[in-house]
Amino acid sequence: MHRTADDYLPTPAPAPRRWRQLNLTWVAFFLTFVVWYNLGAFSTTIARVLHLTKEQSQVLLLCNLALTIPARIAIGMLVDRCGPRRVFTWILCFAAVPCLAIAFANHFWQLVICRLAISCVGAGFVVGIRLVGEWFDSREIGLAEGIYGGLGNFGMAAATFGLPLIALIFGPDNGWRWATAISGVLCVAWAFVFYARAVDAPPGSEFKRPRKRGALEVTSRGDLAGLILLQAPMVLCLGITAWRLVRVNFMPAGVSYAIYALLAALLVQQITKIVRVNRSIIAGDMVPREERYSFRQVAILCLCYAVTFGGELAVEQMLPAYFEKMFGVSVAVAGVMGAGFAFANFIARPLGGVLGDRYGRKPVMIVTLGGSALGFFAIPLIQGTWPLWAAMTLVVLVGLFLMAGNGANFCIAPLIRKPLTGQIAGLIGAYGSVGSVAFMTILLLTNPLTFFLCMAGTGAIAFLFCFLLEEPAARHAVTATPVVDSAADVEMAVA
Questions:
Q1: What would be the CATH architecture of the domain defined by 294-480?
Q2: Do 73 and 425 meet the contact criterion of CB atoms below 8 Å apart?
Q3: Domain 13-201 classified CATH 3.30.420.10?
Q4: Which of 9, 235, 285, 444 has the least CB density, counted as fewest CB within 10 Å?
Q5: Over the stretch 115-130, which tens digit does the pLDDT of each residue have?
Q6: Can you give the pLDDT at residue 489?
Q7: 35 near 179, Cβ under 8 Å?
Q8: How many Cα atoms occupy the beta-carbon half-sphere of 168 within 13 Å?
């Protein structure tokens, strides 16, 4: 029988098995996001019960993002080294510790420590990017990653609307303690399910690990310089967090100087690791063709994710209060108006992945980043004389572009270099938090108009860089080895 080249494409994993893995993974991601945002809806209640100032409440929001940046880098390395099954189980079990600790917290410093620990739980997103990428090939990866991201991110909305309902059962002053503790217990329960049922890679497929450990491998001197430059903004964001803690008298200025010195030392150490892992590149050694990839792709995706996901987080934190003041509505109504971003994510992120699979990732990235930039220019045009439905419609529309951009972003990342997917996703994910911290700092130091204009300008720059993206080559999930039964077949399989 005559064989065509398509006969030698590896077949995807059976549909029930790969969709089962996707369901296990998005639920784990969903629960980590419930934990990550479990105090957001209770900020005013906690401030009243524990007598916190407005600035202390703002610092808690910043602490919820701070360690997500280094955690996503570290988790990315662990995923590539140990496999998603183990790492996601560890994260789910760890999540319960700060959740239960918050339930007994009575002081601001206790909340700060717990929120810093919970910010590490936000790194769980990275794990699923690698696991889903192992089970779905390039023909479906946009849809799968979009569903994973969309349903997982919906944990943010579940925390905002679901946990307060649980809290009502236990009373106005202590309900938040019970709701927070329950979110941690749910994570532990799912950790047992996930560890028992999740599989790192399809049967017959090798879970490939990086050749070197300690830092991301690159393939040229220019890429090495780019990777080193990307380290500075992440460390700077941690320094901003320390500065904010000084401003609320959480620690004396002298301690902050020690932290700045430590962060500088960590930056030097990270650069040293990068150079050590990639010393063969410095020496001029050639990287085998099958191991080469363009780090420029990763850098562009980092910028785009800082705009889309970072912008989403920043706007979601400030928009309810912004609308409450502008329209003179209740806190509940303003919260529903601001939640348009979270609900848009449920639809738009899978849609961005599907459109990327069908029409190409690069065109979708260009359209979504362009729409995001225009949206950030448009939101400041909202006036108190607008009908509420018009303001809400604009917010949802901007959210659709942002979330579709997130979906398109992560249907590119798993196709860049498979053994490094965890580290690549970790770096891109960290820049989502970098964008959020940067934008929230701008808001703190200026005003909402400047805040939106800065996001719009950054979005316009990301839009232009999207034209430099390269469409990823097709990659298929390996689950079976083809049978080669003739010399001609060997020649065709090699081709």
A1: Up-down Bundle (1.20)
A2: no
A3: no
A4: 285
A5: 999 989 988 989 999 9
A6: 35
A7: no
A8: 5
